[in-house]
Amino acid sequence: MAEVLGRRSSRGLALCLGALFLLAACGGGSGGGGGGGASSTDVYVWTAWGSAELKAFKDVLAPFEATSGVKVHITTNRDSTNQIANGISAGTDLPDIAPGPTDPVQVKDWISKGALKPIETALGDQFSAYITNTYPALTTSSGDNPYIGLVGGKHYEMMVKTQVKGLVWYNKKVFTGQAPKTFDDLLAINPSQYGAQKLFCAGFESGAASGWPASDQIDNIIMRQSGETVYTNWIQGKVKFSSPEIKLGYQTFLKEVSAANVYGGANTALSTNFGKAGDPMFKSPAGCLFLEQATFIPSFFTQDFPSLNLKAGTDFDFFAHPSMGNSQYDGNVNGFYDNFAMYNNTPAARKLMQYMASKDAQQIWVNDGGTLGAIKSLNYTDPVFKNAAAVAAGAKNLLVTAGDFMPSDMQKAFWQSLLNVTNNPGSLNSELSHLDQVQAAAYKTS
């Protein structure tokens, strides 16, 4: 069952927002948006969402407010984890509902202090339906799994949305072949057969976070090449970067970004923003056949080529990450999710949690586009998201993006190492040695 679950909240869309605003009020409510006591008429919610994601959330809430008699006060707070941690320490008001923390140590700490209330309490007699209807990889584990908020046999994070990574995108007018079953089959495809210059496009630039798209690629390799146990232990600092499994992952990644396979060579991959990485697929002649990226990427295709009026399933599509040759690990899928936790057990908070766990609420989310829900039986009119939902449903484990759960010094060094080896593949051994040193220090102090 699930080992380490992805929860990164729409990284691709969030990074496009540019500057990080720590606190911006986006709805009604009093003061700092703290809890509203034991209210049955008001609920205070913190979320990191802005722009289209915030609009979608408000669309979800509109029927609830119209029929429940509860007013939802929203605050967009991109520093909610730190502010909630400070509130717990100081004993000050907390929001009624907000995302749970991403650090598994922090999850256990907040549970021990009573800050996080069980989802069993929040959902009441609807909890069983929630477990039955939600993707198993988001709710179920053989034991405690703080990455999904499962501690001591109880759930403390309720899943509402998810995304899938490691999808291989292509222009349907260019690549007309069959999806390769294995990674070796993928590498064996001759792009010139389809009139394309190179096999892959890549774009690893993302400002101060440059390198994260490359980390998504290597994560998908390692989890499917060496398995979820090695992958999870690596995230937790228990497997060295110089280990045979992680080194093999780097070597395999370098095949994707080799001069022979990547459009424009290393310089283009390093200097191109992730949102623009797929553009050469839609030019004539095509610069590349494939781009590996998550479910959020189609919005960049359509905005970059408005005159083409690109349609999902007609003009572009994806196939799931091919097998790395170890079939027992094919069920490992890289993903992330959005969750809500209840910090104040009020009648209004319970009502809202129950509503957000419902199919009606999550159907509004997916109808607005750009995301998968957490419920298995939602209807998708977009063929791309319908196919992505099938990938999520078939996952044995939806595994987190490694760098997102590493200490900050380790994350920075990891991302930079991928940029360095892309630029100079001969530096691999020295990069891995350096990462071992960073790992020893980062996990000792984290």
Question: Which characteristics define this entry?
Answer:
446 residues, alpha+beta, D-Maltodextrin-Binding Protein, domain 2, 2 domains, five-stranded mixed β-sheet, four-stranded mixed β-sheet, 14% strand, globular, disordered N terminus
Uncertain ranges: 1-32
Q: Rg to the nearest angstrom?
A: 22 Å
- What is the name of the CATH architecture of the largest domain? 3-Layer(aba) Sandwich
- Alpha-carbon distance between the two ends: 27 Å
> CATH topology of the largest domain, anyone?
D-Maltodextrin-Binding Protein, domain 2
Number of helices: 17
Arithmetic mean pLDDT: 90
Query: What fraction of residues sit in β-strands?
Result: 5-15%
Per CATH, the class of the largest domain reads Alpha Beta
Helix content: 25-40%
Per the principal axes of the C-alpha atoms, what is the gross shape?
globular
Detail the topology: elements first, then pairings.
Elements: H1 11-15, E1 23-25, E2 42-47, H2 51-68, E3 71-77, H3 80-90, E4 97-98, H4 104-112, H5 119-123, H6 127-133, E5 150-151, E6 154-155, E7 158-164, E8 167-171, H7 183-187, E9 198-201, H8 212-225, H9 228-235, H10 244-256, H11 265-271, E10 288-293, H12 298-304, E11 316-319, E12 332-342, H13 347-356, H14 359-368, E13 372-373, H15 383-393, E14 397-399, H16 408-423, H17 428-445
Parallel strand pairs: 2-3, 9-10, 12-14
Antiparallel strand pairs: 1-3, 4-12, 5-6, 7-12, 7-13, 8-10, 8-11
